[in-house]
Write a structure and sequence with these properties.
Layout: E1 8-11, H1 13-17, H2 27-39, E2 44-49, H3 62-68, E3 76-80, H4 84-92, E4 97-103, H5 106-113, H6 117-134, E5 137-143, H7 156-168, E6 173-178, H8 185-195, E7 204-208, H9 215-224, E8 229-232, H10 252-261, H11 270-284, H12 291-298
Parallel strand pairs: 1-8, 2-3, 3-4, 4-5, 5-6, 6-7, 7-8
Bound molecules: 3-hydroxy-3-methylglutaryl-coenzyme A and magnesium ion.
Magnesium ion binds at residues 16, 177, 179, 207, 209, 240, 249.
GO biological process, one term: L-leucine catabolic process
Protein name: hydroxymethylglutaryl-CoA lyase
InterPro entries: Aldolase_TIM, HMG_CoA_lyase_AS, HMGL, PYR_CT
């Protein structure tokens, strides 16, 4: 399969990134990050999450955050919603696109959202109905697609079954999450090949955490499988509080650099993205997780 001319990046730093930070981040610092990403030309920003603040305290200010975002035309500012309550809160906060999240592993589903996979899918049905009514687009996630912190290997067929349920209920795109970053390029190709038996490749996205340093290789493997949408996190922020040991998502700067090298357009200004990632790294008092940013900033 030939490589695409253009790839769409879904920036998950403000959500997947900051949800896992022990350092509290103020709403104004989150707003600065969202603004910096907007200025860098990012067209999709997952900015927050309408989940229980008892489960993920770092996402508590999401309504205030959405009220403060200076929206730029053509940019999607999205949020996670685990249940109808989360959807309603997101709607009230002016969110125009949400994401629901299921898992391919029963144990992870219980740990992450306190219900079975099938219960989670049942919970999403009223969200889909309400979303249709209000003209809200819904993206779907499947977690643990290349391994689970509690169950180990996950069969691609199981991922395909959950992804297919999300697609069939109306998610316009399903992002396959390597939550703990154990996937390798070979496993990634097999996974997309199996899932593409049920869902068109153009409706799938890749979401790679970089725990084992495989994420960029997995993205390249996915490109060869005809995947054209990838989730990434500025400065490599992130992890999931319910996946112990999972480090950050693949750094957006590194993905943009990879794609530029392949002649693939993203619409993102790499220098401005690096500035955004360094600013939030400074605020968090942590090292920048992007290799490209570190190289450029020390050059
Ligand atoms: P539960 O305890 O089973 O829910 O949690 P409940 O319905 O029994 O409610 C318990 C309490 O939570 C009640 O409050 C509810 O009002 C409240 P109380 O009476 O105790 O004061 N509540 C809510 N509050 C705010 N917003 C809501 C909401 N719903 C209930 N939406 C629940 C179930 C799903 C709420 C909980 O498990 C939860 O919030 N989990 C979120 C976990 C999470 O955010 N994980 C990280 C995101 S997923 C991820 O990172 C993976 C991804 O990146 C892809 C990948 O890498 O694989 C997407
Ligand atoms: Mg994630």
């Amino acid at each position: 399969m030939s490589l695409p001319q253009r790839v769409r990046l879904v920036e998950v730093g403000p959500r997947d990134g900051l949800q896992n930070e022990s350092h509290p981040v103020s709403v104004s610092d989150k707003l600065q990050l969202v603004q910096d990403l907007t200025d860098a030309g990012v067209s999709y920003i997952e900015a927050g999450s309408f989940v229980s603040p008892k489960w993920v305290p770092q996402m508590a200010g999401s309504a205030e955050l959405f009220a403060g975002i200076q929206r730029k035309d053509g940019v999607i500012y999205a949020a996670l919603a685990p249940n109808l309550r989360g959807f309603e809160d997101a709607l009230a906060a002016g969110v125009k696109e949400i994401a629901v999240f299921a898992a391919a592993s029963e144990s992870f589903s219980q740990r992450n959202i306190n219900c079975s996979i099938s219960e989670s899918l049942d919970r999403f049905l009223p969200i889909m109905e309400a979303a249709r009514l209000h003209g809200i687009s819904v993206r779907g996630y499947v977690s643990c697609v290349l391994g689970c912190p509690y169950e180990g290997d996950i069969a691609p067929k199981q991922v395909a079954a959950v992804a297919n349920e999300l697609f069939a209920m109306g998610c316009y795109e399903v992002s396959l999450g390597d939550t703990i970053g154990t996937g390798t390029p070979g496993a990634t190709r097999t996974l997309f090949d199996v899932v593409a038996g049920q869902i068109p490749r153009g409706k799938l996205a890749g979401h790679f955490h970089d725990t084992y340093g495989q994420a960029l290789a997995n993205i390249y493997a996915s490109l060869l499988e005809g995947i054209q949408v990838f989730d990434s996190s500025v400065a490599g922020l992130g992890g999931c509080p319910y996946a112990k040991g999972a480090t950050g998502n693949v750094a957006s700067e590194d993905v943009v650099y990879l794609l530029q090298g392949l002649g693939i357009e993203t619409g993102i200004d790499l220098d401005k993205l690096i500035t955004a990632g360094q600013r939030i790294s400074d605020i968090l008092g942590r090292a920048n997780g992007s290799r490209v940013a570190k190289a450029r900033l020390s050059a």
